[in-house]
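Lecture notes, part 5. Sequence design as translation. It can be helpful to think of inverse folding as translation between two languages: the language of shapes and the language of residues. The source text, in structure tokens, appears below.
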């Protein structure tokens, strides 16, 4: 498994504002969208394309078009904050959903919903979940997707903890992880430090 920590001045600027405790829900949503655009561009950097041509107003130009079948799977709820950015960049993507919720006291994820497109094995599958903390949710989602036939899974996260990276690496060595920040660790409640707090709560104002 490879870990890709994206590095771009715009990404650092957005991350600073996402982390800021005074950033309100409306601004947080916009920032989540913008950072996801940068991350999705990074995570799709090597997807297959096919060569062809296009007629410009002046002449024929060489062109490349995406040829891979692409499936985006946001993890409910927080991953929904990354979906529109994904579809802005890959409009032809199919979309599946995975519903997971961490128990507030044990931090263990519970699977409560799933609906994914058929023939996942033929697609590059992008799991969208902004926080990789203990890795329990991501490992459960990847296991679920692989159980439904997925063979190429990439996790796009915004903040990752070393514990989560290690756990996912052990559970599913083939998964590629794209993130904007590899943070220090977890606190006693399994929140990422320094992190940005509860992503879903900040995204939706709960
Ligand atoms: C958050 C986050 C991940 C999970 C990460 O979701 O979006 O899915 O926690 O934690 P883990 O790596 O320790 O499993 P949460 O369960 O809080 O649900 P929500 O998106 O509905 O807020
Ligand atoms: N989920 C979050 O939203 N934030 C964390 O720090 C950990 C899990």
């Amino acid at each position: 498994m490879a870990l890709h920590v994206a590095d771009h001045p715009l990404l650092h600027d957005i991350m600073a504002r996402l982390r800021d405790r005074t950033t309100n829900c409306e601004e947080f949503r916009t920032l989540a969208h913008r950072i996801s655009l940068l991350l999705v561009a990074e995570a799709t950097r090597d997807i297959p394309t096919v060569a062809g041509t296009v007629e410009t107003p002046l002449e024929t130009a060489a062109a490349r078009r995406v040829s891979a079948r692409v499936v985006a799977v946001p993890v409910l709820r927080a991953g929904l904050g990354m979906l529109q950015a994904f579809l802005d960049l890959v409009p032809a993507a199919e979309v599946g959903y995975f519903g997971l919720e961490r128990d507030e006291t044990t931090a263990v994820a519970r699977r409560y919903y799933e609906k994914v497109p058929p023939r996942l094995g033929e697609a590059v599958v992008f799991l969208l979940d902004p926080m990789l903390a203990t890795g329990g949710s991501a490992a459960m989602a990847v296991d679920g997707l692989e159980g439904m036939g997925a063979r190429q899974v990439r996790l796009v996260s915004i903040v990752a903890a070393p514990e989560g990276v290690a756990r996912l690496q052990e559970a599913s060595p083939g998964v590629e992880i794209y993130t904007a920040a590899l943070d220090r660790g977890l606190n006693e409640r399994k929140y990422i430090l320094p992190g940005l707090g509860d992503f879903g709560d900040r995204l939706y104002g709960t």
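The translated text above is only one of many valid answers, since several sequences can fold into similar shapes. The chain has a mean pLDDT of 97.
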